[in-house]
Design goal:
The structure is a homodimer.
Chain A lengths: L1 E6 L22 E2 L5 E2 L1 H11 L5 E7 L3 H8 L4 E5 L5 H15 L7 E6 L2 E3 L1 H15 L5 E6 L9 E9 L2 E9 L3 H9 L3 E10 H8 L8 H6 L9 H6 L5 E6 L3 E3 L3 H7 L4 E3 L1 E3 L7 E4 L5 E4 L4 E6 L2 E6 L6 H6 L7 E4 L2 E10 L5 E9 L4 E6 L3 E9 L1 E6 L2 E6 L3 E4 L5 E5 L3 E9 L8 E3 L5
Parallel strand pairs in A: 1-4, 1-6, 4-5, 8-12, 14-16, 15-17, 16-18
Antiparallel strand pairs in A: 2-3, 6-11, 7-13, 8-11, 9-10, 9-11, 10-12, 18-19, 20-21, 21-22, 22-29, 23-28, 23-30, 24-27, 24-29, 25-26, 25-28
């Protein structure tokens, strides 16, 4: 069985902890079995592995999330990246083409697609196993998970059950994001929420994908990604399928994509350097900054602070944040990369419009940044912890705590951490952007 | 006439914008006549100068506030610093010894002492002029300002008026910080708040100071500062004086030493990079960080963010912050010095307990830092704006944008800004503290 985890999302609703390259599924806020904290995607992968499903996991995502996935999940999963953000139908089609053409999976193999940002428990994966069995046994071409509704939501899609066949129902019709009154009627008539979990044979989806591309291999198909319509899997596949069944699911299922919902599952009122006084009730603080945060006497708040910004929101109004954040259009101030993490600590524009940007970089032991150069900036690296190997215009040398390296425009440079490396980097130039980079191959010995 | 402004205070109530070296009177939050913002002490000095009192101004303060005063007030005022923090009686005695012995003021000259952190208008200075006239005309040895109480406060001292003489009353008795019921009685009986404004002849106070020190000059007296008892001027002088009069004052008088009071006079709901959505009522944000702050749907809050920390407080509970802040015991993350300002942007302790501290320094045009060396840290300076003159172990050279200077332990260094200089400074060492500094004379050409 192949399990495709969809990892998308712009993450604006959980600003300032999430940003465009660090979506909500990467926030390490959920209590993990070892007593620490894990992210939504780490939790989903861990649960899938513990479930006994014996599924090969493929994560379908955008190129800008690849580094965060590698950093959080490590090996043992496939990663398929869209060359551009489209919608769930093209993303699932691309992942299936990858499984068929790159991984040589057979057309009869059962594929289950699931989102990675739903808060569930192990029963959810038991249900996924049943959906796969139903496809395996030919009960339907497409089986989807029907969540027993908790309330008449206007944010979800609904699927109406038809005839019953064991634990399954046939699917009689779909309604996407109804008005509140229609939602109440749908629930009264027995409709389920569409949980975005789909099971089908690989060949079923490949046949649909083949309507758009005849590329001879996966990489060619990926190049032609623009041929796929920007449309959801629900509209393009589920609603058009001839044989669709629904497996009802009554277990734990939470959408924790908003601060009020997320605060209910993180298990404590404070994460990070923060104090809530005894007079403040039902208030949560998540502080990812080094500086302390104190909340005095204020109730029903979510406070979230990160290098990107500070949010103070009434818990029951916190979804209103999205339009304000969209107006910012600022660079991410924190990112998790395959080589480690960086945090922007100072961002200064001088009177003549040249700029400086100061970062605290942490390169993890054994990891390296690519051999690269920049055309618009100098960089000054001050090494404050660890040891590493520096390559500067082809010259290799050891560097470590106390060293200072001045990298000028156009100089080729790479660094590999022998032990965890902490570097204060001051960038200076007229254009300071992650896109000002030219990468080269470098063979570390 | 000599006007002594008392500038003290630990500033914990206005955390995180104020700290031990940057007390509340230095926060540039009050609307100024030029449309910008000024601090409490800037406002007091400006009002005193505009009042037509023709007073020479002396600021009595602690050594740790000298730089902020020089930076905010510039020249034209005397600054007398206590060698250690004691109380208002010793501070006023020291300032009077300075006026008598260093400034050679005569014993008949009238001195008025006032706090610098009261929010008032020009009428307050008119009243100060009347107090000085009353002393000048021999109506009393000591005249104090009696504020007509706004409510039965338990935080202030009360003075009971006796016999009336023109606009003045004799003072019949003092009550310091009464219980609420007693405060109500006092007000019913006609008591005033003691506004902490006192007028007397210099000789009157010098005679009292001479009970503790016979030092032949001011600097010797300052060395002996410990001989003065730690006691307030009210207890030591006002309550013991034989001839005390009170001048009632009904004009504007606000104690803006707490967030709720301060927020009422700053004239806007937002200062800095912040957004308050339309659903949030009676909420104020003061954001001194570069990152944005968004408040959604939360009412009656004060939000204050600075490099020292973040406060979210219900406006009517915000005084509770003091004990929490006292528990921190952290270094100031922002300071205003005579040469400019610095902001701590990163504070990192490595696994082997060595540390790095990164600052953004701004040295104002024409200003310089002293010739100095450190014994426990290296410093790496990356110049991101401006030009200056660097002295490094006696060698003088020009430096400016794009330069990098590595100053190792023990190296003597000084810098003078030719134009405003912005420097990213990375400190590295086993002990990173402002006290690790040895200063030397340097004659700039």
């Amino acid at each position: 069985m192949q399990l495709i985890l969809l990892s998308g999302g712009s993450g604006k609703r959980l600003w300032p902890l999430s940003n465009d390259s660090y979506s909500k599924q990467f926030l390490r806020l959920l209590p993990s079995p070892d007593g620490g904290r894990e992210s939504m995607i780490q939790r989903a992968v861990r649960q899938a592995r513990e479930s006994g499903l014996d599924a090969q996991i493929t994560i379908a995502t955008g190129e800008n999330q690849r580094d965060a996935i590698v950093s959080q999940i490590g090996g043992g999963v496939n990663i398929v990246t869209e060359p551009e953000r489209r919608d769930t139908f093209p993303a699932i089609a691309l992942a299936c083409l990858y499984l068929g053409m790159e991984k040589k999976c057979g057309p009869d193999e059962v594929v289950v697609v699931m989102p990675c940002d739903t808060y569930t428990d192990i029963q959810y994966f038991t249900a996924i196993g049943k959906m796969a069995d139903a496809v395996e046994n030919g009960l339907a071409e497409l089986v989807l998970m029907g969540i027993c509704p908790h309330y008449p939501s206007v944010k979800y899609g609904y699927v109406m059950p038809g005839e019953r066949n064991g634990e399954l129902f046939s699917a009689k019709g779909f309604t996407e994001k109804p008005e509140i009154e229609r939602a109440k009627e749908l629930i009264a008539e027995g409709a389920f929420w569409n949980g975005g979990v789909f099971a089908f044979r690989l060949g079923y989806m490949l046949a649909i994908a083949r309507q758009y591309t005849n590329a001879p291999d996966f990489w060619k198909a990926r190049e032609e990604y623009g041929v796929f319509p920007k449309i959801s899997f629900d509209y393009q596949v589920a609603e058009k399928a001839e044989s669709v069944a629904v497996l009802p699911f009554k277990g734990m299922w939470k959408d924790i994509g908003t601060w009020d919902a997320l605060s209910e599952v993180i298990g404590s009122n404070v994460i990070g350097n923060a104090i809530i006084d005894e007079h403040a009730r039902n208030t949560h603080i998540i502080n990812q900054l080094d500086i302390p945060c104190i909340c005095i006497g204020a109730n029903n708040l979510v406070v979230a602070a990160s290098p990107d910004g500070i949010l103070i929101a009434d818990k029951y109004n916190c979804e209103q944040v999205k339009p304000y954040v969209s107006a910012f259009e600022v660079r991410p101030m924190y990112e998790e990369r395959r080589w480690g993490t960086y945090k922007v600590i100072d961002n200064y524009t001088s009177s003549d419009s040249t700029r400086s940007l100061t970062k605290h970089l942490c390169i993890a032991e054994g990891r390296s940044i690519s051999y690269q150069r920049h055309f618009h900036r100098d960089e000054v690296w001050t090494f404050v912890e660890g040891s590493g190997i520096l390559v500067l215009d082809g010259q290799v040398r050891n560097v470590g705590k106390g060293d200072v390296v001045h990298i000028t425009k156009g100089q080729m440079h790479a660094i590999k951490a022998v032990t965890d490396l902490h570097i204060l980097e001051v960038q200076m130039g007229d254009f300071l952007d992650e896109s000002d980079i030219e990468r080269f191959e470098y063979k570390w010995e």
